[in-house]
Amino acid sequence: MSIVVFVESSDKKVKKTSMEAVFYASKIDNNVIAVALGSAHDESQLGELGKWGATDVLLDSANKFDSGDLSLSASAISEVMKTKNAKILVLATSPFGSGLAACVAVQLNASLATNVAELPDTSSGFVVKRSIFTGKAFQNVNLTNENKVIAIKKNAVDVVENGSVINISSFSAEVDGEGKIKVKDVDMIQGDILLPEAERVVSAGRGLKGPENWGMVEELASVLKAATACSKPVSDMDWRPHHEHVGQTGIKVSPQLYIAIGISGAIQHLAGVNSSKTIVVINKDPEAPFFKEADYGIVGDAFEVVPKLIEALKANN
Amino acid sequence: MKILVCISHVPDTTSRINFIDNNQKFDTSGVQFIIGPYDDYALAKAVDLKEETGATVTVLNVGRAETEPTLRKALAIGADNAVRIDADPLDSIQVATLISNYAKGESFDMILMGRESIDYNGGVVHGLLGEMLNITSISPVMTLKLNGGSAEMTREIEGGKEQVEVAMPFIAGCQEPIAEWKIPNMRGIMTARSKPLDVIDGSAVDMHSDAGEYSLPKTKSGVKLIDPENIGELVNLLKNEAKVI
Ligand SMILES: Cc1cc2nc3c(=O)[nH]c(=O)nc-3n(C[C@H](O)[C@H](O)[C@H](O)COP(=O)(O)OP(=O)(O)OC[C@H]3O[C@@H](n4cnc5c(N)ncnc54)[C@H](O)[C@@H]3O)c2cc1C
Ligand SMILES: Nc1ncnc2c1ncn2[C@@H]1O[C@H](COP(=O)(O)O)[C@@H](O)[C@H]1O
Question: Which residues of chain A are within 8 Å of residue B138 when distances are taken between CB atoms?
């Protein structure tokens, strides 16, 4: 038997969530085949997946996979699963990953679960724990079909190195056509740390009064090597770009450290950040609901506290 | 042109989530149900397209009779007719199969949905349906403009966005700022009462999973407050206690 993992790269680097998917799979089966599609990958980086438990890496670098046609990529993955006699596909939950998981599930008549938060319990059946209600709850789901597709949530496993760098092989999937999506333009955010991937996030809200005050937020983020984020009203007012807004209707993050500055902690905001490991809240109102969800809190004026925090961190570096 | 909008019927975003019957059942007492926020964007976009092109808009939900007020609200916002597929939505593959069985006979030019439902957060019904109907599905979509027989869309990708073009028919999982949420007006509410709402049987489909016990996340043990005059203490705690820097 073997298990297949679909791997995504960004900026030629394998995404951390894909490494987690490989590690997760290695806890289910010894024979872990990582599959990478499209031209966004770097071969030596893919070889590093051996460290997280991959035993084989297959790469089809045809650029027809770059347009994000789910069905096309799914066909390539399904083909590998059939030829390798793999019954389980593991990948990271993301807009593309979840869509791909869906298409593979249809092609292979598999059970499907996204947002999976822990390793499966196989003591009776194959039960995964899914995060539901936007992080407000979990549900155990038994995946009853022989074939299974599992999209894991960030931090579903704590990865540890348990292997070594491996060789990768090229393959050429027998899929028809070039896909049905024409990509006309790509607009990547330059220089930032990807928010969904970030280990540390510095986020600010309406308490900052205006876009001109984000200098200190960016400085704090840069000292911490963190990504920046914001609350919804802040992006609605165009103080910050839309892709920075976290919460129920925005990006969901689960970093090691989330620092919330001048954010009240509305339930819709918390829904996007409640799986962060450590939460720090800076707010001048001691009654702000966010303090109930925080590990560490500072009651004070952000315009005084944040510069001091930056100084203290710099002194510590 | 025919547009199908699929909506989920979900707890309001401010709802506290609790479970009953030994954590086997979601406690709906006191919970207000709404059109899923992302599905509301899909509906608003469909109504905009109707105004632009004269398209007809069908709104659909897989659910039991208690979702009909939510469907009526969608009619009041501007959909022309509603369809309820009568089944307990238990699994995304089941939901997509039911929608697919219905949509096969209807030849819609586009199917708009939310990027994800905010109850079970699958983020998969659009992808499943696309594969079942063999039409292209794209998500999350931030803008959509028709251009003859195809559509130009902005798709959000991790770390940026893309401009893409797709021929009709297609499926789009919508999110802001694709259109402005619409609130039903008095006239809408009045006319919604007489618009058709058909109920289709949704009993006979295979299940692919078996949903079990619910649980709640661990609650935080309580915040440690740090004196703003002694910020070094926070740095120390982040480093040595939380070990996150
Ligand atoms: C359907 C729906 C979906 C939503 N989705 C989201 C979502 O995804 N994400 C999201 O964030 N919101 C979302 N919201 C909005 C949410 O309900 C709140 O309105 C929003 O999160 C509040 O943003 P805020 O905390 O920045 O602003 P406010 O609530 O105005 O809070 C500002 C805070 O700053 C503090 N403050 C003021 N001055 C200072 C200072 N000098 N120093 C320190 N602190 C200061 C105040 O004490 C206050 O706590 C949604 C709402 C709805 C209805
Ligand atoms: N029970 C349902 N009835 C109709 N549409 C649904 C239902 N559940 C989900 N959808 C649609 O599918 C989208 C994605 O849902 P999900 O895959 O559950 O996150 C939602 O935003 C809705 O547009």
Answer: 68, 181
Pairing of strands B150-157, B160-167: antiparallel
Same domain for A11 and A156, yes or no, is yes
**Taking CB atoms and an 8 Å cutoff, what residues of chain B touch A135?**
217
User: Could you give the number of structural domains in chain A?
Assistant: 2
Q: Which residue of B has its CA nearest to A148?
A: B208
Q: Extract the tokens encoding B169.
A: 């028919």
Sign of CA dihedral A22, A25, A30, A35: negative
User: What is the pLDDT confidence band of residue A78, given thresholds at 50, 70 and 90?
Assistant: very high
**Structure tokens given for A255:** 């970093």
* DSSP-derived secondary structure letter, A51: G
Could you say which DSSP state residue B88 is in? Answer: -
Return the pLDDT at A140. 97
Phi-psi sector, B30: left (phi>0), alpha (psi -120 to 50), beta: left
Which single residue is written with the structure tokens 């155990």?
Answer: A140
Residue B40 backbone dihedrals phi, psi, to 5 degrees: -65, -35
For residue A316, give the 3-state DSSP assignment.
helix
CATH of the domain at A215: 3.40.50.1220
Q: Going edge to edge, which strands form the sheet with A56-60?
A: A168-170, A56-60, A32-37, A2-7, A86-92, A148-152, A111-116, A127-132, A137-143, B209-215
Beta bridge partner(s), residue A255:
none
Specify the DSSP class assigned to residue A251. B
State which residues form the domain around A306. Answer: 195-316
C-alpha A79 – ligand 2 centre gap (Å): 28
Residue ranges and CATH numbers for the domains of chain B are 2-217 (3.40.50.620)
For the record, the structure tokens of B164 come out as 């893409």
Percent pLDDT > 90 in chain A is 85
pLDDT tens-digit map of A220-255 = 999 999 999 999 999 999 999 888 999 988 888 989
Alpha-helical regions (H) of B12-163: 37-53, 68-77, 92-104, 125-133
CA of A196 from ligand 1 middle (Å) equals 20
Question: Bridge partners of B196?
Answer: none
